Bis(monoacylglycero)phosphate synthase CLN5
Amino acid sequence: MSIRWFFFLTLISFFILISSDNVSGKRVWPVPYRRFDHRPPTDPYCQALYPFCPTGDPDGRIPSMRNSDVISVFRLQTPVWEFKYGDLLGKFHIMHDAIGFASSETGRNYTMEWYELFQLGNCTFPHVKENTMAPFWCNQGAACFFEGIDDVHWKQNGTLEKVGEISGEQFNNLAQWVQQDNDTGIYYETWTVRSDPGPNATTWFDSYDCSQFVHRTYRKLAEFGAKLSSKTQTNYTKIYLYSGEPIYLGDDGSIFDQPSMKDLATAIRKFYHSFQPHQSMLQFILSLMEAYKKIILEKSFYLFYNFEYWHLPMKPPYIQITYEEVPLP
Ligand SMILES: *[C@@H]1O[C@H](CO)[C@@H](O)[C@H](O)[C@H]1NC(C)=O
Ligand SMILES: *[C@@H]1O[C@H](CO)[C@@H](O)[C@H](O)[C@H]1NC(C)=O
Ligand SMILES: *[C@@H]1O[C@H](CO)[C@@H](O)[C@H](O)[C@H]1NC(C)=O
Ligand SMILES: *[C@@H]1O[C@H](CO)[C@@H](O)[C@H](O)[C@H]1NC(C)=O
Ligand SMILES: *[C@@H]1O[C@H](CO)[C@@H](O)[C@H](O)[C@H]1NC(C)=O
Ligand SMILES: *[C@@H]1O[C@H](CO)[C@@H](O)[C@H](O)[C@H]1NC(C)=O
């Protein structure tokens, strides 16, 4: 392990959790994730280094199962980009989650996951361009459904576990829900923002990522009457920020198009200038380290959520990556 990694890990584990009083505000916390009517086309500025969902149906169609079919449901988890960086990110517990399905009538199986169109770096940090005042985000995320389960990929350094069975009819209902969820929930949100790490903390913002999709799907299945259970603890990655009550700032129009807001606009640009979106997961981690140093120094973070900016008065332990249990419904 390099000195930098060691330094980062030490910092993260060093900061002891300090508890704080919850601030009661007029706002609804956590701020609800905004749903849209439909998914807009991506901006041509956003160019994916790796194509999104290469083996999925181009129109996102999900095959229909016979109502009488019995479909096995699998919990799938693997360290992010392990093929490039060994299990380093596994040690950090930055995991990717998905769900598998196998039809007993046809013997075919399928993988379903939700992830970034332009990778994690682009969903976490915007592009600060010379000629445009507002930072530019390539932050769409979407569901991908494709035939096949790569057993080795999930099993070897992660998890492939059957957690239940559903009927073909339940599967078809789920498929319908997935399409709708995919059309209305279109932006990836990396951070979960809380008031402190304690059990009674207020959550200011929830993330919207691959594991949240998996949780939503399990809840939907439970709603349809499915019984799900796991023999092991079901843990998931969370990337936390800790702050006092967030302060609403505005959207692109009210911040970057208003001469009177120039100081704020400049501060946001300056903040994000240090963390340009990155090509690789390793660079993303290095950026998180930069973010960590900057946050400790300035106790300040500009969060972009629902296409609006918020100011977070940051407090210890500032930022944490955890791998914690979220039980099946
Ligand atoms: C992030 O977005 C930029 C701008 O479109 C693009 O050039 C880059 O390839 C994207 N990164 C990844 C990993 O897709
Ligand atoms: C979800 O939306 C993306 C982006 O439009 C699309 O590529 C994908 O096929 C859709 N997935 C499903 C399961 O509908
Ligand atoms: C599992 O991790 C090892 C070591 O980190 C790596 O060499 C191997 O390729 C990984 N397996 C898979 C299926 O990605
Ligand atoms: C999925 O199907 C492939 C090909 O038939 C098979 O090798 C694999 O074991 C199956 N995986 C699961 C989890 O059903
Ligand atoms: C959390 O709240 C519960 C119920 O109000 C209380 O019993 C418990 O002591 C609190 N825990 C902490 C760590 O503040
Ligand atoms: C899983 O989560 C539980 C509770 O959140 C925690 O105690 C446990 O250490 C976690 N397991 C791993 C492997 O991190």
Summary: Residues 244 and 313 are 5 Å apart (CA to CA).
